[in-house]
Structure formats: C-alpha cells, structure tokens
Amino acid sequence: MTGFLFERGDEKMRTYRLVIAYDGTAYQGWQRQANTEMTIQGILESCISKAAGYAVEVNGSGRTDAGVHARGQTASVVLHGKAEDGFFTEKVNKLLPPDIRIREAGLEKNGFHARKSAVGKRYVYQIDTDEKPDVFDRRYTYHFPKKLDIAAMQQAAELLTGTHEFAAYTDKKDETSTKRTIYAIMVGGQGGRINIQYEGTGFLYHMVRILTGTLLEVGMGTRRIESVTIALEAKDRTKVGFLAPARGLFLDEVYYKEKSWKEE
C-alpha cells in the first residue's frame, strides 16, 4: 500500500466528514457520471484514492446541478485506518484542482453518512440587479437588471415557509415524496446585490432555482403574491416561475443532529 499514512498498528475502518468548497462553473454537477470525468464527486474520489493508495467512495450530502457552487458541501468517506493530521486538508488538497478545496476534515463515528445523517441545509442565491454585470462576480451571480419590490418578495417568501407538498416547485415528475419543510426564506441586500437565503430539511430537484424564479417574478410585479400558495395546492409546475440559472446558487451549509439551524 502506498501513499496513505496510518497511525501504526491501527487499521480499523474510520469514517471522516469533509466540508468542501467548489466553483461549479466547469463541472457537470456533484454526482459522478459514466460519460464525463468532470464531476465533483468523481474528482474527489480519484484524488483521495490516489493519496490513500486504494479506491474509496465519497458520499455527498446531496447532488448539486451542473454550474452550482458550494461553500459548505459535506461528504463522508471511509478509510482503512486513522489518517494522520493534514491528510485531507494538505495532501489531498495538493492533488485537487484549484476550484475544489477540502475546507475541513473530522473523524466521525462509524455509521455517519453525509446524506442520511443530515437534518437540514442552507442555500444562498445571489442576484446582481445593476445595469451591467459585475466584471468579477458575473460567474457567481445571476445578472437580472430589473427593479424589484423586495417587500413583495418577502411576503411571498413567508407564504412558502412551513411544511408543504412542493410538487409544483420541482422539474422531476417522478419524485416519491414532494413534502418538504422550509424553515425560513430571507430576502435582502443593498445596492445592486440581492441575496435569497433558504433553510429547510431538504430540497427537491431544481426546487431552490424555481423558488427563486418565482420570487423574482413577484418582485417584478408580473406574478401576484398569493399565486405562490395557489401553485402549492394545484401541484402544477406551470403555475410557478422560471428556472433561475445555476451560476447564482451556492450550497452554503449542511446541518446535522449536533448542530441544527435552530441553534444559530
């Protein structure tokens, strides 16, 4: 076995939680795919396997779409022993491309799983309403040069919080369950920047981006505030807003039992 360093005499299976940041611009999303090497999961597995000297599987807290970014994606990985200090944050990071970085790594009890153990997530969607897109932020914000009624967006956001069937707010028609709980949707910002923050138990395919498009239509005045709840009841995708682009969306943090959003 080459490359991976164990503590001597300790080859018990160990589970690690990783907190990962990435710029999703160049990638086809989180999940590994057979037809491309350009996925976050695939690259992480390749680099960690190379450093460890054997094949590993990396499990994420959930999928992010092509072009979506992360400040706090969480993943779990099982190794054949306890890694020495700096294995992930130094050794593996040296192998990763510059747009993917392991921010933190910690030992967990065996049985921890980044997706199955998660109790909630926070996403942030960034919008640029200036007349011209910002030179430096254009890959990380949605340029939407419109005058928006923030108060109306906040009212609509309040109607969307709570536990609902969000069948209207997903592009995947065969979801086994569309019931989700949104704890909070916060709309705010200043100048030409608006951020929409979403906190909830979990989110359906394209759900955050559809919610964002719906709130933007409310902000423009082309959609009535109460339409957001009418769509919930109708469970009809055609009754909600457009799909906002991936580039403005960040997976900000994943919550686990020992640290819930309520403790923030």
UniProtKB/TrEMBL annotation:
SUPFAM superfamilies: Pseudouridine synthase
Name this protein carries in UniProt: tRNA pseudouridine synthase A
Entry-linked InterPro entries: PsdUridine_synth_cat_dom_sf, PsdUridine_synth_TruA, PsdUridine_synth_TruA_a/b_dom, PsdUridine_synth_TruA_C, TruA/RsuA/RluB/E/F_N
Subunit and partners: Homodimer.
Residues of the Pseudouridine synthase I TruA alpha/beta domain: 20-105, 156-256
Family to which the UniProt record says this protein belongs: Belongs to the tRNA pseudouridine synthase TruA family.
Keywords: Isomerase, tRNA processing
Keyword field contains tRNA processing: yes
Function of the protein: Formation of pseudouridine at positions 38, 39 and 40 in the anticodon stem and loop of transfer RNAs.
Residues the record lists as binding substrate: 123
EC number: 5.4.99.12
Keyword Magnesium: no
Highest taxon listed in the record's lineage: Bacteria
Gene3D superfamilies on file: Pseudouridine synthase I, catalytic domain, C-terminal subdomain (3.30.70.660), Pseudouridine synthase I, catalytic domain, N-terminal subdomain (3.30.70.580)
Reaction equations catalysed: uridine(38/39/40) in tRNA = pseudouridine(38/39/40) in tRNA
One GO-annotated biological process of the protein: tRNA pseudouridine synthesis
GO molecular function: RNA binding; tRNA pseudouridine(38-40) synthase activity
Enzyme class, UniProt record, top EC level: isomerase
Organism: [Ruminococcus] lactaris ATCC 29176
Active site location: 65 (nucleophile)
